[in-house]
Amino acid sequence: MREDMAGRLVAWLLLPVMLIVATETNDLETIEILFEKSPNSVSALWDWNYECPDEVTYTAAYKKLGAPDNESQECVTTEQCSCEIPYGLLDHSHNYTLLINATTPGGKILLYSKDFDPNCKIKPPTDVHVNTSDALVIVTFTTSKLSYIEEYNITFRRNDSKNEKSALAQSGIYIIPPNELLPEHTYCLKVNVYNKQTMELSVFSPEECFMAPARGPPDNLRMEALDSTYLLNWDWDFDRSPNPTFTVEKCHTFDSCAKIKRCENITTTQCDCSELLFIGNHILRVSVYDSHRQEKSANVIQFHPSQDTVISPPKDLKMGIKGNKLFINVSAPEGFNNSNIYHLCDWLTHLEYWTKSTQNSEVTVQESNKPFFSIESKEASTTYCAKAKMTCNNNSNRSSLYGEEHCITSGSRSYLVAWIFMAIVVISVVLYICFCNVKRYIKHIFFPSSNLPPTFHKGLGETSLNCNQEQFLLPKEEATDRCCIDLRSSTEDLVPINGSDKSQGNSQDSGNYSNEGHGTQ
User: Fold this and answer.
1) CA-CA 20 to 30 A from 257: which of 125, 423, 513, 517?
2) If you ran DSSP here, which 8-state letter would residue 393 be given?
3) Which domains does the chain have, with CATH numbers?
4) Per-residue pLDDT for 6 more than 50?
């Protein structure tokens, strides 16, 4: 019992060491060495399973092949897992071997080597093959790949024509887009290699000829793509073959075709492919199995969302008139909720507006990077119509659909305000003129320019007038008897002003008046 426990304890203690040794052995035994040529040097790169372990130390050296007495020289490291050999240190009449010593954390030293030719130029691909199956044309080829900075140029032409088409491939497998080939025509292709760093281009490989496959049913493959919704449709004669099953696949340019979800062994003639990425070029294959005829056939279509997607129209267009201006505001399309569509290009708002009348009205076009417009000098009692879409600033052929047409009628112009203003001005002028005359008369009456006689000045405004004491005659006037009117009862006798004759009692007015110092008239 104790021995078993001791054995287990030792096993647990040795397990990390065993894992480290196993990891080091497995990782370092799969080293890959690549060479890159530049105008002034040859660079070597290596890795272990596409990684460069930090815990591994290494040294690199090179020496001539076939020269046993030649000493190895150090390959100067430029960064981790790479080194560089200047052309000036190489003898171009010999080939070389690169030696790499890798030391693991456990102290184990592993040696790797690979030969290289300093005069080696880029070679064309070898073993170019064309496979035509299930409506696809797949090109495969092998190369003496030096590094990841290379790409491959595939050039093909129809056998009875000299016009060539080209395509770039990043790997040794490439599917020619179906819209580039005419079914059942013979084509020939060739491949060369381009090094993006040294800008060297190899010669072409020998031509390989093939016949483009016929495209069987289903027919009329078409993609109805609106914003982010992609619906693949096709035609099928159900009267002739009532029980078919369809399968839709996405064929990559670097591996096999993969079935699209919910589109495997379906009986409808539509597949929702909205899961496809907006960026990229997709080759879709629709295969059909005709149970009535016991046959299988396929057709292919190419779909490029960023170029083929139809963008929805602006959601709304609002118009308003204020004063002498027409204001228009255009809402963004629904598709702009997708960031890929919104950032596809620099979008402009394309507006068209015109006057609606029985005669042909001229259409005015305006474009702006803003969604609103202000149009000057509009006429009264006129109907204006407008519609809008979105266009790419850097691609005139890329635009959204047109939105609905909207119209608005401007009202008749009212001059009421102007008339009221003019009436106020006229009335003000008349009142001013009239007030000036009235003011002059009032001033003349109540505030005369000439002075009143001193007697008036003395009597006015002080006390009540006493006709017996105050004289109202001007100084230079002729002296007359002093008299006054006594507004008493009519039955009372007239009293002389001097009051000397009191013998006449109360008698009625005889109509005769007495003067002081004179007889009776």
Assistant:
1) 125
2) S
3) 2-116 (2.60.40.10), 126-211 (2.60.40.10), 219-308 (2.60.40.10), 317-409 (2.60.40.10)
4) no
